[in-house]
Amino acid sequence: MRLNRFLASAGLGSRRACETLITDGLVRINGKTISDLSTQVLPGDTVVARGKKIESQNLAYLILNKPKGVLTTCADPQGRSTVLDLLPPHYGRLFHVGRLDKDSEGLLILTNDGALAQKLTHPAHLVDKEYEVVIDKPFDGNHRGKLLTGIFIEGGKAKMESVHAIAPTKLKIVLRQGIKRQIRLMLYRMGYEVVKLKRTRIGHLKLEDMQPGQYRLLRKEEVRLLEEESAPRRRPTKRPAARTKRDSRDFGD
């Protein structure tokens, strides 16, 4: 296994971050400092990073139907329930890809593959996230245009890729951006309160009939498709608006 992937699978960060560890001279194999990024880790090799012996984990990919009231975090100092509390400990160290806020529910990806997680959340890779949203009053179709072209909210200019009313107070929304609480803030600007928000799809992955709190492992074909979907896409020739600090590394909800 290539060294940067070995380090990423052990939870040391994305492959790019692990490459930095290598080029900074912080990684040793069998007592020798390694600077060659093409170095392979062989069975029986002893790998040390920042003075600590590293044990690789098997790569794991799961999807979870996050229930409302559960925090999307690895640990909470107040002792509240987190998404990792819903999973058995034998998967080792996992981290969530993007997030859903406490009051939101639905599809969440968890993995120890730092490289894939980084690609899925990077705004340049334009991965679709689909949501079902219940609002407090019937949706006015005249608002669709503003939601699609974009409005300014806390965190920057936000836009939706598509908005469809599937019932008077129920919407199907697709995002590619990742501004924190994006859907709630955008709809609030239009005069609506979000009553319920549920993510139903990321890329090709669908929640389908999974019950709240239920999880499953992804199949190899599903992981392969996620890799393809998270590959960088060609941007339009029109110069994009400046990206804010909060419009990255997060799936807005």
Instruction: Please outline the major beta sheet.
Output: 9 strands, mixed
Q: Uncertain runs with pLDDT below 50, 5 residues or more?
A: 244-248
What structural category characterises the helix and strand content? alpha+beta
The beta-strand count equals 15
- CATH architecture descriptor of the largest domain: 2-Layer Sandwich
Plain-language structure description:
The chain is of the alpha+beta class. It has two domains: 3-53, RNA-binding S4 domain (Structural Genomics Hypothetical 15.5 Kd Protein In mrcA-pckA Intergenic Region, Chain A), CATH 3.10.290.10; 57-232 and 246-253, 2-Layer Sandwich (Pseudouridine synthase), CATH 3.30.2350.10. The chain has six helices and 15 strands. The protein has helices spanning 3-9, 15-23, 114-121, 144-149, 182-189, 220-229, and strands spanning 27-29, 32-33, 47-49, 52-53, 61-66, 95-97, 105-111, 129-135, 151-153, 156-158, 162-167, 170-175, 194-202, 205-206, 215-217. The strands form three sheets. Strands 5, 6, 7, 8, 11, 12, 13, 14 and 15 form a nine-stranded mixed β-sheet that branches. β6 (95-97) and β7 (105-111) form a beta hairpin. α1 (3-9) crosses α2. The radius of gyration is 20 Å and the shape is elongated.
